[in-house]
Amino acid sequence: MKHYIKKAFSILTGMFALIGLSTTLLTVVMLIAISQFQGEVSSGSGLSAPDIDDSIIEIELDGVIQSRSMDPRSQFFNEVFGGPRGYQLSDLRKMLRRAAEDIRVRGVFVNMRNPVASFSTMQELRRSFIEFRKSEKPLYVNLYAGDTLTYFLASAGEVINLAPLGGLMIPGPAFQLTYFGPALEKLGVEMEVFQAGKYKSAMEPFVRSEPSEPSLEMYRSMESSLRQSLIKAIGESRGKPETDVGNWLRVSSFTSAQALSMGAVDMMDYETALLDKLKEVTKTDKLVKWRPYLVHSADLDEPRIADGDDKVGYVEASGEIRMSFQRGEENVIAPKPLIKELRWLAKQEDVKAIVFRVNSPGGSALASDLIWEEVRKLNEVKPVVVSMGQVAASGGYYIAAPASKIFAEAQTITGSIGVIGASLVGKDVPDKYGVHFHVVTQSERAKYLNFTESASAEDKRIIGESIDDVYQTFLDRVAQGRAKTKEQIHELAQGRVYTGQEALELGLVDHLGGRREAFRMAKELGQLNPEKLYPVMQYQPEPRSFFDCLGAPERMMECLSELEGGIQSMLIADPVAKQVLKPMNRLQKLLQDDEVLMYWPGQVRWSHGSDAL
């Protein structure tokens, strides 16, 4: 019997050894593949040189348009496992700029299958469409079907074709507000909220069943501002009165024939018909894909490249602001790594100015203040120009405030200068579930520390003073950066959220524009030639090499965990569950990090059935 057990054990050991060897070999192969893929992406070696003479540049948009650089691992897994194909906004804009100047290029054909991007990203790409058309070269756009954002982008084209059965669904902006107050009551739980600012509505979803009057006033104002900026942009591009475009958005849904008859599009046909028309106008049949063109047209930039060693720095802060984060976690702004980037840029003598991209709804007050101080110190050494993304509200505005200049898009969500604190109280939990909590402490805050007891009057007074102290500091920080009095900022603050257009009119931002405009301003403030191209310096952590992953078991597991995260990121949650769980998960993480928050939780919905961006 011992012999059989020993033999069975040997067989099992061998099997596990083979499995381990197979896993290791698979990991090695995948890491090599990722390294090779990264090299090809950076060098463009996988793309043959096209014949550009007398050509039409073809752009097919079918996937996510990234405003941030995509991690090569994510690109690799998207390619291998059929994830969404990524487009870099900077690549598209660079390609369009070159094509406008390139005498070999006759025109551009944009085939919009299913582009996905935030409004601010669409706005920047749309601006590039408009800039390209100043070259007097045709830019034709093919739409299969249009929602608000895709039609907004397409409207910058000279000629728009819409598929016969495609149609338009263009309702414009809408704020979707979800409230959990009654649901929490049924669980025997309530939220105790402490806030500074009557418009600070971040916790309303957890204590109410509908928005308060100040919240409704704020959201109606923002919706109107967003709608008007959309109407104005489309009207200017299509040569239509704003009243007509406003009616389009109100009615919202149109067949392709209706869209054609009212002038929203120029053709109702198939892709090939539009392409044939462009070929006829440009007198050429030659099509060149935009990616090979981008890779093999770099020589066009040489005359504009500045002499010398001067550079412009770039740093990006995207996500919720928290004191801590887990390795591999995306869309989190933590002080430690961001401050490291800011200090690194301060030490680079060749960097004459910095563009600071902020895309954040806020978060921890403490973390925001730590970042604010580093941005302030950096701005004293070198000019910092902030470029706001889709949202730079509350803590996101806080960290932008000390910059020399602030740019926002008309549709950026910003402001929300206010502070909020909250804690969950399970008063009915003992009766409902038979679960009792007892706190043993000498602290006078015993009630506040007990999950099942409400804060005492003294607790509320102390917490209220703490919240107000943070709010007063927030006002001081903004007043200092905006060169206004504290009283002036308080009138604009109180937690109220604004669009970029509203913020410009109130002096909370300096200019409307995207990254390109921010870089131009940074060059001017850094006493560089704004017409020249300068290298962009961005902090890069030490790269993890193939041998780093294989050198020790703990590094191997670290690499594997990051690769696993890349696969998991492609999973899509149930849409209903996602809408309910997203705000709850955010709240949980933020309250674990800091009980005093600078945060705006809102969502802008631009299209039916799409996630808010």
From TrEMBL:
CDD domains for this protein: S49_SppA_67K_type (cd07018), S49_Sppa_N_C (cd07023)
Biological process terms in GO annotation: signal peptide processing
Keywords per UniProt: Hydrolase, Membrane, Protease, Serine protease, Transmembrane, Transmembrane helix
A GO CC term assigned to this protein in UniProt: membrane
Annotated transmembrane regions: 12-34
Coiled coil: none
GO MF: ATP-dependent peptidase activity; serine-type endopeptidase activity
Active-site residue numbers: K200, S394
Domain Peptidase S49: 132-281, 378-528
Subcellular location as annotated: Membrane
Similarity field: Belongs to the peptidase S49 family.
Protein name per its UniProtKB record: Protease-4
Species: Pseudobacteriovorax antillogorgiicola
